[in-house]
Amino acid sequence: MKKIAVSFSLILISVIAFSQSTYFTITGKIIDAVTKAPMQAASVFAQNTTLGTATGSDGSFKLWLPNGGYDLVVTFTGYETISKRISTADEADKNIVIELKQKEKSMEEVAIKSSNEVKDGLLKYGDFFMENFIGKTANSKQCIIKNKEALKFYFSKKRNRLKVLAAAPLEIENSALGYKIKYTLDSFTHDYTTLVSTFTGYPLFEEIPAASETQAAAWKANRTTAYKGSILQFMRSMYNKQLKEDGFEIQFIVKTNGADTAIKGLDFYGAFNYSKDDSTKLVEINPNQTDVAILYKNEEPGKDYLAVNEEAPKNFELSVITIPATQSIAIEQNGFYYDQNDIAITGYWSWEKVADMLPYDFKIE
Prior knowledge:
Structural class: alpha+beta
Shape: globular
Number of helices: 8
């Protein structure tokens, strides 16, 4: 992660030329939580973007980011990873100080690793992990992890659960979309009882230089295809009140005599209790029903998806999001939304994983 300053120096220089109304600046300092000493060469990046840097000798950093919201992530070898939510509204704060704590292995973690680590785990679970982390879409077939040896596999018979950790950031190369991704994996778990896989982490994107105009055109087309109908496009469309124009339809799922019934809403934004704060530019939504069906009608599901989901609609992509009645979701203008852990996603969006991810600074032309 210490090479980020070199990798992104040209990007940061080029950003300066953009209008200040389009970009905002984040400055701050990274220090040791105990000694308060500045930490040089700490990696600082906006999660799920191509934008990052490394701290200087005095622990300071500076980032230019497109307007919107992000999780600012700080990593340093031997220290706990820190994530801080930031947005355009934080530009006025010129003295952000982030303290890093050294990692301390808990007794529980030591016990898990000593008793449950699977010998030859990569051989036994590697393909399964790839399918549920990288994905099973067409793009996943052109996506590799270059340092699989960093993966560690742990199986708990008592919990009937597989857990995967990584000793170093995963180096992912996506030849379908033209990105290199350094993914700091927090954890991956698969519950064999519920058949539910979940993973969390901090991805940093880097564009791969195209070898030819043909390759550049192919990556541009593939990125556009990945973007259309994605949850990133949906959140941006919701923010800008462009759902219908962008091909989205909303239906609420309610129980009627024990069976699910879909109700089409005429006023999408009223049904979501859409509100926008003019000062922070933040949109908040809180749907009238907890289960919401999202139909994307401008694209048919992929053949690979239909092959394993025979009952899925054939003419449009169907995803379902569940938002607890007591929770609301905040959306920034770049499509960043939170709290992401409050949303449960099933259907087509759950099929698309790391191989189909796009950074938050992606813009469709």
